Amino acid sequence: MNHTIPYGVYSSSNRELVITRQFVFELYNLDNDILGAALYIGDSTEHKLIGICERYQSEAATGYAFINSLGEASGNNFKLKQRLNRSFQTVDLSAYLRKDIICLAAPDRYMPTVSEDEMFFTMNTNKLEFVFLLRNKDENIYCGASVTVSCDKGLFGGRQYFRIRNYQDNSEPYCGFYSFLGEDVIIPDVDSSNFHTGSCSIKDQGIFWSVKSYSEDVIILQGCGDDEYTYCRNLIMNERFESTE
Predict the structure, then answer these.
(1) pTM for this one?
(2) Number of domains composing the chain
(3) Environment class of residue 77 by beta-carbon count within 10 Å: exposed (0-12), middle (13-18) or buried (19+)?
(4) Model pLDDT, residue 105
(5) Is residue 1 part of a domain?
(6) How does residue 60 score in pLDDT terms, banded at 50, 70 and 90?
(7) Domain enclosing residue 41, as ranges
(8) Which residues contact 40 (CB under 8 A, 6 or more apart)?
(9) 3-class secondary-structure state, position 52
(10) 161 pLDDT exceeds 70?
(11) CA-based angle 228:233:236, to the nearest 5?
(12) What pLDDT digit, counting tens, does each position of 135-159 carry?
């Protein structure tokens, strides 16, 4: 891959690319009918497809495929399985909107977690969070992109502009499929009164993860349910870089 253009997040009206040295995460919208998310892994010269999901709106169906921990193609869609291990094709990014220029993430949340039946990956930039979950059980699929805002009281996540959320027959209220690619990042005014120490609050605006405890070097946020998110001052990043501009 040609990296004369800096690493970062790039978006057009029907495609978004998060490009780092090790990963390419792609979101796309084909004619408002096929919504897709794809994860590539590699190095500065080549990235290969290890996981992909597509939502076929006109068919009300979700397909997915990934390379599992046994090195086998897993998933429910034969055609998507055939695309695994293909190389990411270089893209002219000059016409894309550059949405973010700083990428950072912790190793335990950054590297794909892969088992025989599941692939999970999440990536944070300065303004955005990307999630990629493919799970065979119950066809539990979650691929999304959201805006995040931090403050002294905690972390806000909302304004999700891409979502593929499939679970069983999709009768659950959190299931849904939509895409608003191509828009610049809009940082919302976060209502800090929705942060409550040691709790997770879900409001119309988004999700509020509040500070549970902190010290000079560590902050622990309370996630939903029993989840906790730990942030360390001296955390060694898997990748961290800024634009050279």
Answers:
(1) 0.83
(2) 1
(3) middle
(4) 54
(5) no
(6) very high
(7) 8-241
(8) 23, 24, 25, 26, 47, 48, 49, 50, 88
(9) strand
(10) yes
(11) 90
(12) 999 999 999 998 888 888 888 877 7
